[in-house]
Amino acid sequence: MNQTFTMREEFVRTRPAATVGVVEKPLGLWDRLYAQGWLRKTVLLLLLALLWEVYARQVDNDLLFPTLGATLKAAADAALSGELTARMMTSLKILLTGYAIGIVLAALLATTAITTRIGTDLLETLTSMFNPLPAIALLPLTLIWFGLGQASIVFVLVHSVLWAVALNTHSGFRSVSSTLRMVGRNYGLTGFSYVAKILIPAAFPSILAGLKIGWAFAWRTLIAAELVFGVSSGSGGLGWFIYESKNQLEIPSVFAGLLIVIAIGFVIENVCFAYLERISVRKWGMQQ
Fold it and tell me: Does residue 245 lie within any of the structural domains?
């Protein structure tokens, strides 16, 4: 059977660009402002400051709960006299020393655990024994071992940092996909080069979480140690400043010391660690 085919004429219809409509709608002022994380946090801080001031004025007793204005004045006076700055630098110096030693030991322990079976057994055994032990509980012993000096505080700081960082690092190493592991093995990577080039970049979100937890543990352990055992760290830090102010019934200064402790923690978390996240895991597309 013969079939005939005819070519259908093609039609191209054009539409004026003005009738297409809005392809990309610009965000309004509110949406642009709300998208700024720093602005949202600033508003929250201002609301908390306002609540503080309102509640303190209702209490109307500086010995119980001073106003934010009185607290800021006490902080300014202590800063101008140089006392608050010296105490803050003392605390940060001790903290960074213990934090750095704890990170190095945690890295060595986690690397040993991921490369050898005996290392895994060692990490699991030590963490199950010492991780539940509060760091501050070791301070009476360290005062006997190292005396009234910075070494005793550094020891308990290392204890508070070591296990959190080691556990998170080891957990991150174990969560690395088999594909990445095989890539590293195919390139002939072993030992430290395998850990540095394959495991650490892939497990960095977990490592970063461990660094944050270790920082928080170390910071509050340091303040608690100085509050409980006074000037055992030498010249005394922020905890000793709070302790002395309490004994002298200078409650605005007590709140000023607490405010500085909170402010330092806030800056470290939202500036230092946020910058580290931005140049690492967020840049690599590993975190939203």
Answer: yes
